[in-house]
UniProtKB/TrEMBL annotation:
Keywords: ATP-binding, Nucleotide-binding, Transport. The lineage of its organism: Bacteria, Pseudomonadati, Bacteroidota, Chitinophagia, Chitinophagales. This is Cu-processing system ATP-binding protein. Pfam families: ABC_tran. InterPro entries: AAA+_ATPase, ABC_transporter-like_ATP-bd, ABC_Transporter_VariousFunc, P-loop_NTPase.
Length: 235
């Protein structure tokens, strides 16, 4: 579905992505993990077309994404920090996004708006929201247009335990529909019962892409967080 081939991205002298190749397919829920500064967000931004690689290429359903922006409407993106017009209310932000995407024929998925009860605070201005509520708006927007692919950057950061479980239930449901889900998170305990695959990055390089089961076998650990901690210790 999304294939990156030999992607390299430099920022000045720093090589943020060093010849990275990954293959992500329908129905997978992938944890993109690695130490701070290892290139995870840069890779996500390349997949979204927000950062253009210096070399290598990325395809979405066999089509090179360069200069073909249509594929973006098939991806729901939840950024690490959602930035919105601060004087707008939640309702206005949701309406604005629906208006921008009105040519998108997909049926709206407003489940998370209801699950997080955003209707009751729809008249609150974005600048007045708590960090967790802002996360809920970002999550609701990522799922709103019923995309085939969800890219979620630290989705549970700032969410209370109940909201975390509700978001995980929603992710699980969409995965079961055959969607591709890519999650970067340092809160790996949140992902244990969710992910099927793990991509591990270090120093801009892809160190491995394997199934969660394989990773557990290789490390002798039964939890994702412990398995990754072990990988980080030995690298
Ligand atoms: N626009 C930019 N200009 C210069 N350097 C950048 C830019 N974006 C990222 N970098 C650098 O590229 C490297 C990889 O950054 P990236 O944000 O992809 O890491 P990450 O794995 O997502 O980190 P974290 O876990 O802390 O979120 C870092 O050294 C970062 O400082």
């Amino acid at each position: 579905m999304i294939i990156a081939t030999n992607v390299t991205k430099r920022f000045g002298k720093l090589t943020a992505l060093d010849n990275v190749s990954v293959n992500c397919n329908k129905g997978q829920c992938i944890s993109l993990t690695g130490p701070n500064g290892s290139g995870k967000t840069t890779l996500i931004k390349c997949l979204l077309g927000m950062v253009v690689p210096d070399s290598g290429f990325i395809t979405f359903n066999q089509q090179n994404i360069l200069h073909h922006w249509q594929y973006r409407s098939r991806i729901g993106y939840m950024p690490q920090i959602g930035r919105y017009p601060e004087n707008m209310t939640i309702a206005q932000v949701l309406d604005m996004m629906k208006d921008i995407r009105k040519n998108n024929k997909s049926v709206l998925d407003e489940e998370l708006i209801q699950t997080f009860d955003l209707q009751h605070i729809a008249n609150k201005k974005m600048r007045t929201l708590s960090g967790g509520t802002r996360q809920k708006v970002s999550a609701a927007l990522a799922f709103l247009f019923n995309p085939d692919v969800l890219i979620l950057d630290e989705p549970t950061a700032g969410l209370d335990p109940l909201s975390t479980e509700l978001l995980k239930d929603k992710i699980r449901k969409e995965k079961q529909k055959g969607k591709l889900i890519l999650i970067t998170s340092h809160i790996l305990s949140d992902l244990d019962d969710l992910v099927t695959e793990v991509i591990y990055m270090q120093d801009g390089q892809l160190r491995f892409h394997k199934s969660l089961e394989q990773l557990k076998q290789d490390t002798g650990q039964s939890q994702l967080s412990r398995a990754i901690a072990q990988v980080m210790k030995t690298n």
